[in-house]
């Protein structure tokens, strides 16, 4: 979508319903929500005694960690490409 129009969709993350509004397609927002749901369930398997708030924070920390690692790898690849020019 990303043409300035907002899309609205309802998603289920870890058994709770959320309404998401954004410029991306509904399919994209559902995909993102699905990844968050999967990650929360993965974290819950490793830490079954965490309450939902701690589980959400732990999930956020893990997702940001993954993001930073991917960003670092992307920047490294960009530098390598520039060096070849």
Automatic annotation (TrEMBL):
InterPro entries, alphabetized: Bac_CellDiv_Activator (IPR053712), Cell_div_ZapA-like (IPR007838), Cell_div_ZapA-like_sf (IPR036192), Cell_div_ZapA_firmicutes (IPR023688)
Alphabetized, the UniProt keywords read: Cell cycle, Cell division, Coiled coil, Cytoplasm, Septation
The processes (GO biological process) annotated in the record are: cell division
Q: What is its main location?
A: cytoplasm
Report the sequence similarity comment from the record. Answer: Belongs to the ZapA family. Type 2 subfamily.
Q: Known PANTHER family for this protein?
A: CELL DIVISION PROTEIN ZAPA
Q: What does this protein do?
A: Activator of cell division through the inhibition of FtsZ GTPase activity, therefore promoting FtsZ assembly into bundles of protofilaments necessary for the formation of the division Z ring. It is recruited early at mid-cell but it is not essential for cell division.
Q: Which NCBIfam families match?
A: PRK14126.1
The protein's name: Cell division protein ZapA
């Amino acid at each position: 979508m990303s043409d300035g129009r907002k899309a609205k969709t309802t998603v289920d993350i870890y058994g709770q319903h959320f309404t998401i509004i954004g410029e991306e397609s509904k399919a994209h927002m559902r995909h993102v929500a699905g990844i968050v749901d999967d990650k929360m369930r993965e974290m819950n398997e490793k830490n079954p005694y965490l309450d939902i708030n701690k589980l959400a924070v732990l999930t956020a920390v893990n997702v940001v960690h993954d993001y930073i690692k991917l960003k670092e790898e992307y920047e490294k690849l960009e530098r390598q490409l520039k060096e070849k020019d």
